[in-house]
Design goal:
The complex is a heterodimer of chains A (about 500) and B (about 170). Chain A is of the alpha+beta class and about 500 residues long. Chain A has helices at about 5-25, 40-70, 195-205, 245-255, 260, 310-320, 325-340, 350-360, 440-455; strands spanning about 95-100, 125-130, 135-145, 155, 165-170, 175-180, 180-190, 215-220, 225-230, 235-245, 280-285, 290-295, 300-310, 365-375, 395-400, 405-410, 415, 420-430, 435-440, 465-470, 475, 485-495, 500-505. In chain A, strands 4-5-6-7-3-2-8 form a seven-stranded antiparallel beta sheet, with helices on both faces. In chain A, strands 1-9-10-13-12-11 form a six-stranded antiparallel beta sheet, sandwiched between helices. In chain A, strands 14, 15, 16, 17, 20 and 21 form a six-stranded antiparallel beta sheet that branches. The chains are: A alpha+beta (about 500), B mainly alpha (about 170).
Chain lengths: ~500, ~170
């Protein structure tokens, strides 16, 4: 056996020492440390500052300039809520900031632009279901605001005599009906027209929200990031919502044109307001209720929605006032809000989070899978990974990541909750975060270690060297595995920054 | 507290800050590649230390603690770099950005760029190794892991760097 050639490492060491000396020379001047009463909590926002600055520069360059020309308009500030950094930088002409409402919280009274709507923060509410064959359907249940419109879609008679309206879009059917002051909407990528109508017939006579026979209910995940409300002097309300919602995208595509054509106003040529370019394209506007909606989407599911009880022209004027760069900056902000976490800051997990973590033992909701490939999503909604629920652990899967622009090709699951003996939340001082600590059953130590070894060696079973943590059909994290050998436990950071495979003492 | 909200800093913390700020900021720079961000991260790390000074000052290695905080924050920034890159590039086009401007001569900048391409733990171990000439035990204290693990990270990191730097030299010839 020959000795390894150490010369390349000597060259690296020389380069490293020289590069280190160059860096050290640049940081010799020590700035004063200014401790103030207000710097408590500063580090929480420090990492967000980069993205906030990005938003401020991009949007503010266009919008604040408008504000500066109108001294009468107050420049509102609001440093509460996760969207606060966004609000002062996006201020439509003629409006003032009224409220920043985090996800899941109620806004101030009178600001809901959709009176009577059950959920202000997402278009879909109710249950989603998956059939035993893997078909996916979403059911939206809202309080009915009136009868179905006469001129929207095709009329369809369900089995029990209920009238429904059917929309057909390029990739899915949607069906809507009203019964007992409840409006139900079914939508599916997978079912054809006749199957969807048949399914609606099965559901229509049942209690609203119940999963049809042969289907199982699955929780609907709300990816909304909150709402920013603006008002004008005439009582107009404008709301801006950031969300990730595959259904929102489809709804908008479905309502494009047909809804426009039924308005009394002249139908605008959508191509003339397509100011978003390839990303963040303005896909349409809808009139499902007295409010109007204008939305942008980058076709990977992230959407920015403007809602308001304004005239169509007014809403489009606001929409068009946004600079083309807004989309990327809003996305950067959303990502920061999702994943930004600074060392030393701890938000206590909720009881629900604790319960969910403890429930991982024996559950198949969490899977560990080797990563075969990672790809940037094409800007085409047809490439959506539609099957995100009920993953077969023995089959490869194609899933979105925490960053929805990334799509992961994954191998079969190597571990799920059945291989765990314990799952708990741990406060990790070293990284300023919470960890989900998973203790593995003795019987899976070696198997897990073998897979880790294939990743370290970049073998064909794990050519990327990455192992993905899949939670409820989504890749939370896919770090590079660095150390082979038996694995006794796994620690997952809650901010999505990574996992560590914890081994016995080497 | 003074009328302007300034709080008097304890003398021992001030000495600690004075002694370690430069190396912590340099460490953050090697891992995130932006001077402005690196200085911000260093300040944040020391702010975190300041808030916990009564506890941190009792640790065997408070300097390891602050380096750990800064290096973890720096790699966290690095992870977000790709998804922010597009937005940043569009924004800074035509504008000056002192933080993003190359700080070092090209060959040194290239070295740290390659370090940042390493897996997180390898990058941290390599940066600590070269920047401060820390021993394996000291690096293990900063990264809060076993010394053998540090050895593995260092070996793999240096080997990967050797390959990449050699490939770079080939291209330059």
């Amino acid at each position: 056996m020959t000795e390894p050639d150490s010369r390349p490492l000597e060259g690296v060491d020389r380069a490293g020492r020289a590069a280190a000396a160059a860096v050290v020379r640049e940081f010799t001047a020590v700035p004063p440390f200014e401790a103030t009463a207000s710097n408590r909590g500063r580090s929480r926002t420090a990492l967000l500052a980069v993205a906030a600055l990005v938003v401020a520069v991009a949007v503010g360059a266009a919008v604040v300039a408008v504000v500066a020309t109108d001294d009468e308009l107050p420049v509102a500030t609001d440093d509460a809520g996760p969207l606060a950094p966004l609000a002062p930088t996006y201020l439509p002409e003629g409006f003032e900031l009224t409220a920043v409402v985090p996800p899941g919280q109620d806004g101030p009274p009178g600001l809901d632009v959709q009176p009577g709507r059950v959920d202000s923060y997402g278009l879909v509410r109710g249950v989603a279901g998956e059939s035993n064959d893997g078909d996916l359907v979403h059911m939206q249940i809202t309080q009915a605001e009136g009868p179905l419109p006469d001129d929207a879609g095709d009329r369809v008679a369900l089995d029990d005599g209920i009238d429904a309206v059917l929309w057909e879009s390029s990739d899915r059917y949607q069906l809507m009906w009203v019964a007992d002051d409840t409006m139900v909407t079914l939508a599916s990528y997978h079912l054809d027209r006749d199957d969807l109508v048949a399914l609606a017939g099965d559901i229509a006579g049942e209690e609203a929200g119940a999963a049809p026979e042969g289907w199982r209910s699955v929780p609907y995940r709300d990816f909304s990031r909150g709402v920013v409300h603006f008002t004008d002097r005439d009582g107009g309300v404008l709301s801006l919502r950031l969300s990730f919602d595959l259904d929102l995208l489809s709804f908008l595509i479905a309502w494009e044109r047909s809804e426009c054509e039924r308005t009394a106003d002249p139908c605008p040529d959508l191509s003339t307001v397509d100011v978003r370019g390839e990303e963040g394209r303005l896909v349409g506007h809808v009139h499902p209720s007295p409010h109007l909606v204008v939305a942008w989407t980058d076709r990977t599911g992230w959407a920015v929605v403007l809602e308001g009880n304004l005239s169509e022209g007014e809403l489009l004027r606001v929409a068009e006032s946004l600079e083309p760069t807004t989309w990327d900056e809003l996305l950067a902000q959303v990502y920061e809000l999702d994943h930004g976490s600074a060392p030393g800051e701890f938000d206590e997990p909720t009881p629900e989070t604790n319960a969910a973590v403890q429930g991982l033992v024996g559950s198949s909701d969490l899977q560990i899978r080797p990563v075969l490939d990672v790809a940037e999503l094409e800007p085409d909604y047809s490439s959506f990974p539609l099957r995100t629920l009920g993953l077969d652990p023995d089959q490869p899967a194609r899933l979105l990541g925490a960053d929805p622009r990334q799509r992961y090709e994954l191998g079969a699951s190597v571990l799920d909750g059945t291989g765990l003996t314990r799952a708990e939340l741990l406060r990790a001082e070293s990284i300023g975060s919470w960890l989900v600590s998973l203790e593995l059953d003795d019987s899976v130590h070696d198997a897990m270690g073998s897979v880790a070894e294939t990743c370290v060696e970049r073998a064909h079973e794990c050519p990327t060297g990455q192992m993905a943590v899949v939670w409820e059909g989504r890749v939370l994290s896919a770090p590079v595995v660095q150390v082979p050998g038996g694995v006794e436990s796994i620690a997952i950071t809650l901010d999505g920054s990574g996992i560590e495979l914890l081994h016995g003492e080497p | 507290m003074d009328s302007d909200g300034t709080v008097e800093v304890q003398a021992d913390f001030a000495a600690f800050y004075e002694a370690h700020w430069s190396s912590v900021a340099a460490l953050a720079y090697t891992l995130c590649g932006n001077r402005t961000v690196a200085e911000e991260l260093a300040q944040d790390a020391f702010t975190a230390v300041y808030r916990e000074w009564e506890r941190v000052s009792l640790l065997d290695r408070p300097d390891a603690w602050v380096r750990r905080v800064a290096s973890n924050a720096a790699v966290s920034v690095l992870r977000r770099r790709d998804r922010e890159a597009r937005a940043r590039l569009r924004l800074i086009a035509g504008r000056s950005d002192d933080g993003a401007r190359a700080l070092l001569p090209a060959e040194h900048e290239h070295f740290w760029t390659e370090v940042r391409r390493l897996p997180t733990r390898q990058a941290q171990a390599v940066a600590l190794h070269y920047l401060e000439d820390l021993s394996v035990a000291d690096i293990a204290a900063v990264l809060d892991c076993a010394e053998n693990t540090v050895k593995v990270h260092l070996h793999r990191g240096r080997s990967a760097l050797a390959e990449r730097l050699a490939a770079h030299e080939e291209v330059d010839r």
